[in-house]
Design goal:
The protein is mainly β. It has one domain: Jelly Rolls. It is 7% helix and 52% strand. The chain contains 3 helices and 25 strands. The strands form 5 sheets. Strands 1, 13, 14, 17, 18, 19, 20, 21 and 22 form a 9-stranded antiparallel beta sheet that branches. A 7-stranded antiparallel beta sheet has the order 2-3-4-11-6-9-12. It has a 5-stranded mixed beta sheet with strand order 5-10-7-8-25. The chain is globular.
């Protein structure tokens, strides 16, 4: 019997099935939260699966210029190519396997649009966007952009079979390169039938497994494509075993346990802070995106 098999396992809190809705310039996402029944999973504010969508030539869409304040946006792309621009002058092209981790902090205007090639020729686009809350003390920090190519992420074959990539934090001794503002873990596992990953998360941290292809069993609970398994915050191991081919994301973070005031693109701690954010945006204090051809190129 393995060491993990003898350890206590976290209880499953619930299984959440993602629903489809339209976001940004009209692209369809699968969203397990926020919903009417589940507002957030502290510190995570939003989880969207973008696609997979096959765009015809000239049909690709994205998220044109829009503001953010008070949290971080994380984009992980599996297929396609998206171009990021923001009011700090940062510019990056997100390709398959790449990640953009943007700390909006005190405020930023950014856009995420299909590249010229995708817009011209069409193609498959598939990825994820997650919003991570910032502590009150960090909400007005200067904006920061981190962009990483696919080959910058450590990966390994698991002892239980399958493949693990780590974007942030530490899973099974594999560390991700992203410098997170608060403790966050983000991994991606690819499993064949019977493969297993055992994941130790610090006690008290929020943790969930999102299956986005195939099917898996998470600590004794079955989950299919499009389902998120939320675990309790008690101490214990999380075991994910594929019941067929499975692709899943592993996410965990330290809860902030602070008031959340959110409206549209802003997430603060009070209603007045939201009002101020809108006033600052309308007054142009969050800046504008420089014209193409200027700024810091990170592609």
């Amino acid at each position: 019997m393995t060491e993990h098999a003898t350890q206590q396992r976290r209880a499953v809190d619930r299984v959440v099935t993602a629903h489809r809705q339209t976001e940004g310039g009209g692209f369809v996402v699968r969203r397990p939260f926020p919903t009417a029944g589940l507002d957030n999973l502290d510190p995570f504010l939003l989880f969207d699966e973008m696609g997979p969508t096959e765009y015809a030539p000239g049909g690709a869409i994205g998220a044109p210029d829009h503001p953010h304040r008070g949290f971080e946006t994380v984009t992980y792309l599996l297929d396609g190519a998206m171009e990021h621009r923001d009011s700090t002058g940062a510019h990056g092209v997100i390709r398959p396997g790449a990640v953009q981790w943007m700390t909006a902090g005190c405020g930023v205007v950014h856009s995420e649009m299909p590249t010229d090639q995708i817009q011209r020729d069409g193609g498959r686009v598939h990825g994820f966007q997650i919003w991570v809350n910032l502590r009150a003390a960090d909400k007005m920090t200067p904006p920061r952009y981190q962009g990483f190519e696919a080959d910058e992420f450590a990966s390994r074959t698991l002892a239980g079979g399958g493949r693990l990539r780590v974007i942030a934090g530490d899973i099974d001794g594999v560390e991700g390169p992203v410098n997170t503002t608060s403790p966050v873990t983000y991994g991606h596992v690819t499993l064949a039938a019977g493969d297993r990953v055992d994941w130790d998360v610090p006690a008290g941290h929020t943790a969930f497994v999102h299956v986005f292809e195939g099917a898996a069993n998470v600590n004794g609970t079955d989950a299919a494509d499009g389902q998120l398994v939320l675990l309790s915050r008690e101490e214990g191991t999380i075991s994910v075993t594929a019941t067929g081919h499975a692709e899943a994301l592993l996410l965990a973070g330290e809860p902030l346990r602070e008031p959340i005031a959110r409206y549209g693109p802003f997430v603060m701690n009070s209603r007045q802070e939201i009002v101020t954010a809108f006033e600052d945006f309308e007054a142009g204090r969050l800046g504008t995106i420089p014209a193409a051809g200027s700024g810091v190129i990170r592609d």
